[in-house]
Amino acid sequence: MNILKLLAEACTVCHRKDPPPIIHLSPNDIQSLWQVSLRKMDQADTTSLDQSTDWNQKSSSQPRKLTQIETDKLSRDNVLVSEFKQNKLELEAKKNWDLFYKRNSTNFFKDRHWISREFAELVDAPHQNKDSPGRNLVLLEVGCGVGNLVFPLMKANPSLYVYACDFSPRAVQYLKDNRDYSSDRLTAFQCDLTSDDLTSVIPAQTIDLVTMVFVLSAIHPDNMTYAVRNIHSALKVGGIVLFRDYGVNDHAMLRFSKGHKLADCFYVRQDGTRAFFFSLEFLGSIFTEAGFEVISNEYVFRETVNKKEGICVPRVFVQAKFIKNG
């Protein structure tokens, strides 16, 4: 059964005058619906909350404490995806992200207007680089997708010049097709951070700021240090990486069912894309090994309460800043 048709049918039932049809769900249909709900949770970091939803946010140096039920669930999920399938997922990583954007076009993620609130450097920075008078600040956004971060940010800070790259060629093309795209202020290109050299497109040591927002988690942990070193080579001395991604014990991590675990804190979604959930210690070690120093590194707890549905969702992110010193 096509899961999208199933959802469409379910949404129209309430408008029918005749009795609703009986829908028979196979185990695969149920699993697909479950994975759709997981994917919808990926929007939670960007979606505007409606009037029926309350949320509060706080920071901590300690991971979220799990309930006994949550601890038991994680302890029972100890069977990993086969090595053959894991290798296949790695080889098809670009294809799976390209298919994701083919299915969702530009409609999945909401614009990330919150980015300037969390990282004031992006909008409060001087209009010109203090080390090179007359030159605007230069931003590199890795994992730019279709532009949900870069376009709001360019409007908020007209002084920025932006390089934007993504693993998916389709996502980059969607970004270039956006009516706000201007080659005078933005250069977009496809790039695999784990194998392509950023400095083949960007002059070495010329970037002032880098945004890494929900991108490193999609990379296999064995390749993360190389990806971060790649970014290090493009940053100038004194340049800063602004980082936000999934944190260990996030609600989305706990909702993965058996058969999706690749390694500790590393899971595969139904569509073949992957997600890693960071501890502060692991994240810090990746960046220090790549030559960065830590400015800040903390968990962000955001508890979202939907009063209408009576649902409380504990989200956990990691938010950090890293600097390249001489």
Describe the structure.
With 326 residues, the chain is an alpha/beta fold. 32% of the residues lie in helices and 24% in strands. The protein contains 12 helices and 11 strands. The strands form 2 sheets. It has an 8-stranded mixed sheet. The longest helix is centred in the N-terminal third of the chain and has 15 residues. It is globular. About 11% of the residues have low confidence.
Shape: globular
What's the N-to-C terminus distance?
58 Å
Structural class: alpha/beta
Q: In DSSP terms, counting alpha (H) and pi (I) runs of 4 or more, how many helices? A: 12
Give the low-confidence spans. Answer: 6-23, 30-36, 44-54
How many whole angstroms does the radius of gyration measure?
21 Å
Instruction: List the strand order in the largest sheet.
Output: 1-10-11-6-5-2-3-4
Mean of residue pLDDT values: 83
**Biggest sheet features:** 8 strands, mixed
Helix proportion: 25-40%
In total, how many beta strands?
A: 11
* Strand content range: 15-25%
Order of helices and strands: HHEHHHHHEHEHEEHEHEEEHEE
